Amino acid sequence: MEKITKILAPTDLSELSEAGVRYALNLAKAVGAEVTVYNVVSSEELMRYGERMKGTIPGDASLSAPASVLEKYQVALGAFLEQHFSDVMPGVEVHEKVEIGAPEINIVEQAKKEGSDLIVISTHGRSGLTHILLGSVTEKVVRRAPCPVLSIRPAKEQAAVQKSIAA
């Protein structure tokens, strides 16, 4: 087995994605690897963002962040890391990257570009019609990745699955 030196940790900044990022950071600390925490902003998210910004007025608090959408997501990624992972980040070389695109495509391309040894990604537990229509970013990444992919099931997702099985 090759030494793990570069880990790609995709996140959509959701609560469910925290498990994957935390696992990547802890693993990196244990093996001396660096981590790129990577947020891909999809076109759907950009449209939702545009809707939220409609009707805002100059001087509104939502406009005090940097002007460009990409910069706002970069700030959000930094805040996400600081808020949720400040306990595990010391001692780990962490890179932050935000891009606009299709998450399942960009994640694979970023792993190739960086020469990642491992992708650590959370599952989001979509099932039924939602899974059929949208598919799973994790599933698509696993199929196309240039390196091993470790998928992490968040504890909240596990609890929901166990609850539905018990019902």
Structural class: alpha/beta
The number of helical elements comes to 7
CATH class: Alpha Beta
Count of all domains: 1
How many distinct beta strands? 5
Strand content: 15-25%
User: Topology as H/E string?
Assistant: EHEHHEHEHHEH
Outline the fold blueprint.
Layout: E1 6-10, H1 18-31, E2 34-41, H2 43-53, H3 69-85, E3 93-100, H4 103-114, E4 118-122, H5 128-134, H6 137-144, E5 149-152, H7 155-166
Parallel strand pairs: 1-2, 1-4, 2-3, 4-5
Helix pairs in contact: 4-6
Report on the architecture of this protein:
This protein has 7 helices and 5 strands. 49% of the residues lie in helices and 18% in strands. It has a single domain, classed as Rossmann fold (3-Layer(aba) Sandwich). With 167 residues, it is an alpha/beta fold. The C terminus is likely disordered.
Features:
Rossmann fold, five-stranded parallel beta sheet, 18% strand, 5 strands, 167 residues, alpha/beta, 49% helix
